[in-house]
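Incident log, structure service

09:12 report received: a user says their structure output differs between two submissions of the same chain.
09:20 pulled the input from the user's history:
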Amino acid sequence: MKSRRIFLQKAGLSALALNISTFNPISAMPNFLDSKKMDEKPLRVAIMGLGSYGTRVAEAIQETKRTKLVGVISGTPSKVEAWKTKYGIPAKNCYNYENFDAIKDNPDIDAVYVITPNGLHKDQVIRVAKAGKHAICEKPMAVNAADGQAMVDACKAAGVHLLIGYRMHFEANTLEVIRMRKAGEFGTPLFFQGLSGFIIGDPSQWRLQKSLSGGGAMMDIGIYSINGARYMLGEDPIWVTAQETKNNPEKFKEGIDETIQFQMGFPSGAVASCLSTYSMNNLDRFFLNGTKGWAEMQPSTGYGPINGKTNQGPLDKPHTTHQAVQMDEMAAIIFDGKKPEVPVNGEEGVKDMKIIDAIFKAVKTGEKVSLKLA
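09:34 re-ran on a clean worker, output below:
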C-alpha cells in the first residue's frame, strides 16, 4: 500500500544512500539501558498507533539523548506484544484504545505521541490531556480548525503541552534557509512554490475514507506546502484561492480531493502557488524567490537528507534523523521552556487547519477566501 510514508521515503531515497545511519540496530535492546540518555531528564513517551510511522518514531527515539520509549497504546494485541519484546516495554505501560485513560495513574509516562488517523486525533488528544499527560500529535492535528481549537483548549485547561509533529521545523537545511531569509540574504521575499504529490495505492486505505482522513491529498501532503510557505516566507496568508481537478471519481469519492492547486496571498504582497495531488509522482519541491536571491529544496519534506541550493551555493548542513531531532527538541520545549525557531505548538497546528478549511471553501465556492490567523 502506497502512502505518504512511502512518498516521503522515496523523496529522500537517493540522498539516503549517502547516510545509512538513520536507523540503529541497537533498537532491539531496551532503550532505558542506553546511558547516553541519562545526561538530562528524559521525556518518557508512549506511542499511540503502532503503524509504519509509529515504528519510524520508535526507531528514531533509540538515537535520541533526551527521550525514552516507555509505553504503547494500540488496538492490535500482536503489535503490543512485539513492541514489548523489541523495546523492553513493561506490561504495565501497555494500553488499548478503550483503557488508555488509565495512564493518569501511571507516573512512568510523561507524554503520549498520537499517530493515528486524522479523524481520531481530537478525541484521543483530549483524553490524553484529561489524563494529565503532555500530548504530541501527528499532523494534520485534526480534520478542521474547530476540532484543532478544541484540542488546544483541552490541553490548556489540563495544564499540559500540545505539540504537533512538524519535524521539518527542526531540519538543518530548512533552518538555514529560514536564517538566510531573516538575515535579508534573499532580499524581500516575493514568491513561494510548493509541490507535493505521489500516486496513492490501495483505494480501501483510511487516507481515502473521509471519516478518518478528513480529506484527500490536501490533508495528507498538501499541509507541507501550506506550512512550508509560512515558514519560508515568514508570514501568514491573508487570502486563498483554489481549484480542484478530479479525474478518478471512483477512487476519490466525495470529500476526498485528488488534486488541488491553491494560491495564497500574504500581507507583504508575496504570493504562493502550490499543488497537492494523489495522482502524480516526483513532486516534493519548495522554491523561494526574493529581490536579491532564491532557495530551492528538492526533496523538501522527505525523510532526508533534504537536498537544496540557493543563489549562494548548495545547502550542505549535515543530515540527522528528523524524528530523533524533533523528539529531543520537544523534550527541551516541555522541560526547559525552549522556544523553537518555528513554533510546533497547537496554535501553529490550528493556523494550518484554518488555511485548509479556507482552501476547501475556495474550491467549493470558486471565490477568494479571506483569512485572519492572528
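09:41 both user submissions now match this output. Likely a transient worker issue. Closing.
09:42 reviewer note: The CA atoms of residues 134 and 213 lie 24 Å apart. The radius of gyration is 20 Å.
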